[in-house]
Specification:
The protein is α/β, with parallel strands linked by helices and 234 residues long. Helix content is 35%, strand content 26%. Strand 1 and strand 2 form a beta hairpin. Bound molecules: adenosine-5'-triphosphate. Adenosine-5'-triphosphate binds next to helix 1.
């Protein structure tokens, strides 16, 4: 048998109270792969990540993490099993300090080393451990949000719009961090407004179109010609 994927969705239907957003989506993130998830506004990218993370209920279909069905598990159980979600808007606690945020992100047994590891990866946080997270710059907040990916040794990280609202030089840092995670064998599923940049680091690409997969293939193919525009445009 082939090794299980880090994450796979099988014909997933999900959405909100009255609105179905995902109409049967199948997608695979192989171990160690970098997968780009593109699509126009409202296509359902955030909903897909939220559903994989356990924040939206799966109404039909299934989700597997490392070959095990996690469709019915609450979000925190998925985190314990190796799934890390960095939500749009960062998802940090703004009224808590950097130190307190890191303590909450780390698995209980790793609290002692959490600060050290985060500061090593993001030196900018070092002098700010007792600062309230809400007073950090946008870039520093994003670094803090992403440090959970270091503190939990996840199998897969779902990244929603990490570069939103950041200065270009900080966007470079965000992508460098993601590439570093990938180099360590962490699988990534990335949604980002800078589609070209994601495609350059991706090993596979999907385009969502109104809640369905419209493209499933090579990132390089999407970067060429008009395919890209035709998928993103509609
Ligand atoms: P964007 O880049 O604009 O965030 P997206 O591809 O991530 O787009 P989603 O945010 O997943 O798309 O939204 C998909 C659909 O679900 C949209 O029609 C949106 O209006 C709807 N939607 C999103 N969040 C909610 C919610 N909390 N309640 C009801 N409908 C929602």
């Amino acid at each position: 048998a082939t090794a299980p994927a880090a994450l796979s969705l099988h014909d997933v239907r999900a959405g909100y109270e009255e609105t179905m957003v995902l109409h049967g989506v199948s997608l695979t993130v192989p171990k160690g792969a970098v997968v780009a998830l593109l699509g126009a506004n409202g296509a359902g990218k955030s909903t897909l990540l939220r559903t994989a993370a356990g924040l939206n209920r799966v109404q039909a279909g299934g989700i597997e993490l490392l070959g095990e069905d996690i469709s019915r598990l609450p979000a925190h159980r998925r985190t314990e099993r190796g799934l890390c979600f960095v939500p749009e808007g960062r998802g940090i606690f703004r009224s808590l300090t950097v130190r307190e945020n890191l303590a909450l992100q780390a698995a209980p047994r790793d609290r002692a080393t959490a600060i050290e590891r985060a500061v090593e990866a993001f030196p900018a946080l070092s002098g700010r451990l007792d600062q309230t997270a809400g007073t950090l710059s946008g870039g520093q907040q994003q670094m803090l949000a992403m440090s959970q990916a270091l503190l939990r040794d996840p199998a897969v990280v779902l990244v929603d719009e990490a570069s939103l609202g950041l200065a270009p030089v900080i966007v470079d840092e965000v992508f460098a961090f993601l590439e570093g995670l990938a180099a360590r064998g962490v699988a990534l599923l990335i949604v980002d407004q800078f589609a070209q940049r994601v495609l350059h680091i991706a090993t596979h690409a999907y385009v969502l179109r109104r809640g369905r997969i419209g493209y499933d293939g090579e990132p390089g193919e999407l970067l060429q010609g008009d395919i890209f525009a035709s998928y993103i445009g509609a």
